[in-house]
Design brief:
The longest helix has 43 residues. The chain is α+β, with helices and mostly antiparallel strands and 180 residues long. It is elongated and about 70 Å long. It has a domain of 106 residues: Umud Fragment, subunit A (Ribbon), CATH 2.10.109. It has a 6-stranded antiparallel beta sheet with strand order 1-2-6-3-4-5. Helix content is 38%, strand content 21%. It comes from Vigna radiata var. radiata (Mung bean). It is a single-pass type II membrane protein. It is found in: Endoplasmic reticulum membrane.
Amino acid sequence: MGWVTDTVHSFNSIQLREVFNQIIALGLIVSSALVIWKGLSCVTGSESPVVVVISGSMEPGFQRGDILFLHMSKDPIRAGDIVVYNIDGKDIPIVHRVIEVHERKNSEETYILTKGDNNDDDDRVMYNYGQKWLQKHHIIGRAVGFLPYVGWATIIMSDFPVLKYILLGTLGLLVLTMKE
């Protein structure tokens, strides 16, 4: 009877080690993704080095689902630049073209007006109440490259949040049940 208890104890110990190893592997995957994201942020100078175009406001130049790569350089922002900006109090970054820039002499203040290529009006209607211009602190980055349509997975998961949880749960189960 003692050998049965020892065998069950060994089997439980092995299973526990395997589960622990799988949890560590999942943690390493997640932390690696975070390190890569932070590394890209440092290299590009942008808090968000990659964004997905989620609307058709920049068509035909950028389509819904395109992934944009951003960079924030010290070069001044000029009319014609495609920038990604965030408005205070709103979570979703916006990808639009700069159509007007005003720089005050003897001051570091820059006032920026944007517009989507596919929109009839400028973006003042999207800015906060009473806000007529963007300033440098609103700009997340300048578009320096893109991958067409690769961001559709993000759009689908945003439009159908249940899919995001199903995908994350499935990936978690795969990692936990995967044998080496």
